[in-house]
């Protein structure tokens, strides 16, 4: 039994991944029917019960939006038809769905990272587990309730889905409990802890020698010149690209993110790979570490943004309070208006 519990942090992400993968193709929504009055009160109550409807998943919705967009751009439509606003709206909805698909895929890969980091005793596996398992418990619970509602509608497949989801939910709780209670120190891939330094990120350290007083001025001029070039050659074309070619811009951004991710994965493999492991094992942990860095930097960015918003709000409130205090007690604004 103890050995089985030790395997749960490796098995439970697999079951979570199966649930998420299934949701990419099949989705369930609760539909509230319109009220239609009849002579029978029992029939009225039956008609007003919400029903669970099976729909296409996220991939099906994206495919439908793309086909709908192709129909809007078809040459068979009348020439005088003005659908530019509709096209832009559909394109932006399509980008939102694709971004959500990217988030779901990131979550799907996170299950892989949680299993890999636990199996290879990586030092950051608990950080990934503290994100994956609470989120999974929240995600799985509505899916379980929906399947229970389908059981009430006497759907045969819902019995199997409910049993699978219930089993997944239980082993997820047990796996997370096992990880929390595990006091063993995981010290694998310690070199990755220092991968944020300049040398380990593939960059050479900057020269710290002091020169003449004209050197900082020259650096400022160079920075301004480079900023102008970047703005004219990169930022403005990117802005025009995302404005007029929404789909192409989204593909371009995804390609750049994927290319940068591959670069970092191989860089982490070079820096933190352990000689006792095979190359694919080091690559798998490097991929997991990249997700860990995404999560850490994302949480830091969100926390910093919240702090900045709270600080600016506090300053603005303090300014308004100060203005009201001066106006009520000293009447400076009233005296100034007399002039």
Automatic annotation (TrEMBL):
Keywords: Membrane, Transmembrane, Transmembrane helix. The keyword DNA-binding does not apply. The chain crosses the membrane at residues 7-25, 99-124, 131-150, 156-176, 213-237, 249-268, 299-323. It comes from the Bacteria. This is Uncharacterized protein.
């Amino acid at each position: 039994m103890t050995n089985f519990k030790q395997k749960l942090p490796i098995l439970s992400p697999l079951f979570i991944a199966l649930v998420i993968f299934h949701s990419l193709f099949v989705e369930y929504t609760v539909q509230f029917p319109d009220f239609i009055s009849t002579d029978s009160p029992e029939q009225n109550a039956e008609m007003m019960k919400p029903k669970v409807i099976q729909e296409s998943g996220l991939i099906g919705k994206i495919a439908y939006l793309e086909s709908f967009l192709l129909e809007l751009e078809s040459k068979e439509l009348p020439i005088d038809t003005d659908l530019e606003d509709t096209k832009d709206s559909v394109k932006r909805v399509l980008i939102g769905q694709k971004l959500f698909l990217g988030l779901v895929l990131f979550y799907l890969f996170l299950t892989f990272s949680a299993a890999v980091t636990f199996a290879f005793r990586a030092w950051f596996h608990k950080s990934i587990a503290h994100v994956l398992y609470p989120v999974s418990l929240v995600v799985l619970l509505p899916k379980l309730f929906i399947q229970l509602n389908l059981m009430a509608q006497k759907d045969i497949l819902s019995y199997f889905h409910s049993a699978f989801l219930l089993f997944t939910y239980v082993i997820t709780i047990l796996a997370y409990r096992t990880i929390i209670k595990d006091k063993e120190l995981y010290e694998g891939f310690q070199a990755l802890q220092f991968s944020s330094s300049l040398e380990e990120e593939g960059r050479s350290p900057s020269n710290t020698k002091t020169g003449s007083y004209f050197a900082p001025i020259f650096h400022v001029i160079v920075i301004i010149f480079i900023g102008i070039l970047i703005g004219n050659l990169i930022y403005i074309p990117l802005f025009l690209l995302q404005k007029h070619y929404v789909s192409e811009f989204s593909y371009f951004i995804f390609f750049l993110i994927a290319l940068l991710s591959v670069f970092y994965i191989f860089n982490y493999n070079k820096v933190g790979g352990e000689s006792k492991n095979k190359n694919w094992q080091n690559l798998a942990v490097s991929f997991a570490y990249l997700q860990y860095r995404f999560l850490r930097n994302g949480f830091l960015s969100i926390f910093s943004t919240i702090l900045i918003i709270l600080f600016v709000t506090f300053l603005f409130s303090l300014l308004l309070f100060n203005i009201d205090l001066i106006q009520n007690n000293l009447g400076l604004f009233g005296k100034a208006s007399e002039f």
